[in-house]
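Can anyone check this?
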Amino acid sequence: MKVIKFILGILLIANCNLKIEAQYSHNKTMPVNALKEDLQIVKKNLEEVHPGLYAYYSKEQFDATFAEIASHLNKKLTPLQFYRELLPLLPLIANNHTQIKCPKSYYDAISSELLRFPFKLYHHGEKLYVHKDLSNEQLISPGLEIISINGLTSKEILDKMFSYASTDGFNKTLPSLAISTVFSKYYAYYFDTPSIFIIKYINGNNEIKTAQIKGLLAPELNKRRKNNVKYLPPDNSISFTIKEGIGYVKIPSFQPEKPRKFKNTIKKIFKTLKEKNISNLIIDVRNNGGGYGEAADEVFSYLISETVYPYKDEFALVDEIPYQEYYKKEMFFKHFKKQPLKQKGNTYHIKNISSEKIKPKNINYKGKLFVLQNAASASATGLFLGLVKSYTNAKFIGEEAGGNPTETTANDLLSMVLPNSGVRVTIPALRTVMNSTFEHNGHGVVPDFEMIPTIDDILTGKDVVLEYALKMLKNDVH
């Protein structure tokens, strides 16, 4: 595919142009007219630019939500308060490439000078567990359940985080992963940055205990995280092994730094599989947040026996970005201007997208195939999973993938800064519709065999998903 697909940005906050944003302060109150002006700018840009705005919810539902937000803007608010008012738009848009981000002044503050929640938590089965205790006090052991923080129950906290979540359709696994990954940051975004956290938890004797924990600054938190992390190979390093007649390929990213090397590595892997007559293969795309469609298509070309036309359509609502004064003139902004668009009715379509094809390689794989996936299998990886499901006999193991397999609004991500509040908004300009053999239902690929690690699995490093796949292949169950 000629259009670049970049990795899911749900866990990354982009650096913004300091000259534009230095004027904003998250604590300074804004008059009502400025708040309403920024709200209208968000509304008209989403309506006129975002081609997937009504993919899951109706215009009437959006209008009602905007009206409710406007009704709250009847007094002065800080940019941070205004940002939180906008967050309920995200689950309505239900597109994980659309972002509403806090003013950079607040992001900088929680990254340096404001105290943060000093634990890494794991969300599983509607509960929160301690994954890592990074605090000074060291009172709550990993594996214990958190039942409340500063008077709010875990359920209340989770309900609010999910109500602000950026998802892909109706998927819930991706926001769950985000909570597990960046809970401390989410707590600062959505709640507060207190100096003391009163935490109730269940100890090893099944007793409810209370701990008073001091917050930590982000630099110290990051230092302690690094001390607790086992360093892994770079994200673009492909792993390949053959053991007991089973091939295993782990592809952590479809965004290689060196595309030619990526292609050569994939070719070498499938050549080896062919030469060694391997008929059992596991492809692991867990934690692969996406990348370039071309890289995903390259892998897919070794898994098919006939030519596949993967794309039905790719289109935009505009051929020129309106209200350009609000947008940063970054790479995607410039890239969109070069798109080969052709008007059809009220929309603009990438020329000849439906004629693009993926041809099978001569050394294509024809044996049994298991694909391992999780919530972080998103963006271009979500589309890859959709193609594999449509055109191969693969079986899927893990949890529902975080990326939509049948369509995505993910290309040419346009960044804007609201002029009064400094709230940052990312709007994708292109919507891609895949030539899938199954219906679009607003979910990622659902595994044939669901396997979700427990907190005990996480703490002991037990890979239950891979173990399950190996067991099934060894038992010749497919």
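Reply from J.R.: I decoded it. The chain has 15 helices and 20 strands.
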